[in-house]
Amino acid sequence: MAARLLRLRLTLLGSAFRGSATRALRAVLIGLLAAAAAVALAWLPTLLLHEADARADLDVFIGSALLGAALLVPFFANRGHLEPRQFASVPARPGSIASALLFSTVLTWPAILLLVWLVALAALRPEWQQPIWALVIGIALAYLFALIAARVSSALSKLWFGHDRGGVLRVVGTVLLIAILPLAFFGVTAISGAPEGSTAAAARALGWSPFGAAFAGAQQAASGDPSAALLHFGVVLAGVLVLLAIWFPIVRASLQSVERPADPAIARRGLGWFERFSAKPASVIAARVLTYWSRDPRYRVGLSAIPFVPVLMILAFWVAGADLRTLAAVPLPVILLLLAWSLHNDVAMDSTAIWSHVASGIAGRDDRRGRLAPVLLIGLPVALIGSTVTVTVMGEWRVLPAVIGMNLAVLLVTCGVSSVFSVLIPYPTTRPGDSPFAQPQWSGSGSGLSQTLSMIAALVFSVPAVWIAVVALVDVTPMWNLAALAFGVVYGVGILGLGILLGGKIFDRRGPELIAATQVFD
Fold first, then answer.
1. What share of the chain is helix, strand, coil (3-state, %, to 5)?
2. How confident is the model at residue 265 (pLDDT cuts 50, 70, 90)?
3. Are 106 and 140 in contact (CB under 8 A)?
């Protein structure tokens, strides 16, 4: 079984070089560039740091990050991975299939690049090469842990979620990656600006985890403490054994379960966003609304105007003599406020399809949740990345948690308020297919009232989170900043959930009135 899978893996590796000469040359160049990047990553600590202790701490940080990525990334991105369920018809025992899948993982491009990095790391660290046995054991354990972790994570994802939710998982993984980047920058900056003792303490803490213990063990052996090195290697070995104890039951469960078959009469390709969401009311509404936002010029015109408002505000304050570093915290909350506030009349924008929600008996909370998808998919990455840019302009990285908490709170609170007002006071707007610059003539006061009240409500409900964030910006301490981050996230999620529930109840009660209000000019 293992020999057959190894031959299959070799065939898959060689398939990248088949075809035209241009394709083969491109594959060779990409492979060489990837290998060069792996070697450069191993060489980077030597270039940046000349002291052996500081370089060893950085190696522990980088190694822990790579092994952590080996565990997390396959859970969200595993489209090309072989899974145990594909071998259910093979007349072999689950243990044989599990072992063969593990052995064959070495012949994959990520495993090869990881091996290149580990070999380069061993070659570029002469201080770790005595005793050589510790370096070999550390590199082998790190490589083994990464391979098994990737296998377990991928198989667990396939077992729990299957293929039909792969697109949703990739979107969630992308959002989480974007969320981690500012925190990673914050951590790197805090470590670089921290006293030498605290940096070494952080490296020691990671060195006792399965992700960094192999590298810390090699460092301990090189410094003349083989007993401490063996303890670190024992931590990695324990992590490997735990992963193996999880891996074999996962394979057995995958071979004994059958994924729900897809209906052959239903198209699965060419459906855009509908391919990436499950067939549930809120998910289907989210896919349809995302399609509108990507194709309907009414939404694009509205979004294009949002960035200009904070720019004009900054120019006005700058002319008045305000400090630009202080004003750096203003544009992003304003952008997120306007982005989420654009949902306050979303029911009227979707006037041609709202009747289908009412006629099919879709729960109001599902309608409210589905319509939030575009704003959250745009707003969450903008809030996280924009917070990093904000603190960079401010020149103070210690306030990053408070800035993130404030921006997330503004986004989530305004989404909750808009979820209520879009069904409470809808007003006629530009019809689908009309010019986005044309507005219907409306003699009532609904438009002005809805816009004013929704904006005031969003501002009022955002005050608590903004106030705590401002206190944290003034009193730059870790406690206040972490408290501002926690309060902003919890408070924003609470207001958003309350807005979804309240808006859903209003939608259920006023369904016919909503259809009448949105069909005034049809």
1. 80, 0, 20
2. very low
3. no
